[in-house]
Amino acid sequence: MRLATIDINSKEIASLIIDDKVITIEEINNIFQTEFKTDTFEILVNNQWDKLKTFYDEMLLNDSYKTKLSFIPINAVKFAPLYRKPSKIFGIGLNYADHAADLAEKAPNTEPASFFKPYTTIIGPNDFINIPLQSNKTTAEAELGIIFKKECKDIDENNWLDYIAGFTTIIDMTAEDILRKNPRYLTRCKSFDTFFSFGPELITSDEINDVLKLKVATVINNQIHAENTVSNMTFKPDYLVSFHSKVMTMLPCDIISTGTQRAVHINDGDIVECRIDGFTSLVNPVIDLKK
């Protein structure tokens, strides 16, 4: 299942992507007399995700029902972030050795180096990334995102997918010049408005043959600047989910951004893209507020 949030007349509405076409949950409710929440955040926090997935598999993939559906062409929709206010956004620092080398730091090899980002950083596809007034070197980092579907604590690595709604594309920003002044400035350098883009799709794990084989690329102005495979992470997705659930209770819509292969310096006018195998690319233009 592929779920997105689209903007219709400034209202953000949960929608499903089927055969490169889009149908809103609102329309599904009208046709089938279902009572799904029409907001992605609300679907997850109200424990409707598994019910929606079952409905999708049994009804919406059935050709006899597809003729009832009123689709919107995918190139006619405006995508929004999947949702706006998760309780937690975890970023994973230096999860590829290549990125640690960029910062002349030793990559953590015993436990993940995680940090929080506030939800006020969130933007969606095609929104502007703002290079802040306080920074002369801001970087962008394409990452694979993991989204939780239900509350969990102390989960086992073998069962991690039971608690995951799916995966998404993420672009994470860092004011690197601020970070280089002092590593204790990590929270500040990661927390400027527009420093976390995610969407357009939330893809369930059954749509992905092997998460570890996914290639993640940071693309600037249509040129690949960094590319690596999830299997080369120091701490793999199953471990990250289990590890953080043993620190604190994870809630529906919580996000883990799994780390970048390499941060790339961005400038005014650049177009940044997170490109992951099988996903619709996440693309954002850049504006420097100092210009």
Q: Please summarize the sheet with the most strands.
A: 8 strands, mixed
The shape is globular
Q: Averaging pLDDT over every residue, what do you get?
A: 93
Gyration radius (Cα, Å) is: 19 Å
Write the CATH fold name of the largest domain.
Fumarylacetoacetate hydrolase, domain 2
Q: Give me the secondary-structure category.
A: alpha+beta
Q: What's the CATH architecture name of the largest domain?
A: Alpha-Beta Complex
- Binned, the helix content reads 10-25%
* Fourth CATH level, the homologous superfamily of the largest domain: Fumarylacetoacetase-like, C-terminal domain
Which series of helices and strands comes N to C? EEEHHHHEEEHEEEEEHHEEEEHEEEE
Q: What is the total domain count?
A: 2
Number of strands: 19
Relative strand content:
25-35%
CATH class of the largest domain: Alpha Beta
Taking the alpha carbons of the first and last residues, their distance comes to 42 Å
Tally the helices: what do you get?
8
Provide the low-confidence segments as ranges: none
What is the gist of this entry?
The chain has helices at residues 25-32, 40-45, 49-60, 63-66, 97-102, 176-181, 186-190, 237-245; strands at 2-8, 11-18, 21-24, 72-73, 78-79, 89-93, 113-116, 122-123, 129-131, 138-148, 164-175, 196-198, 202-203, 215-220, 223-229, 255-257, 264-266, 271-276, 282-288. The chain has 291 residues and is α+β, with helices and mostly antiparallel strands.
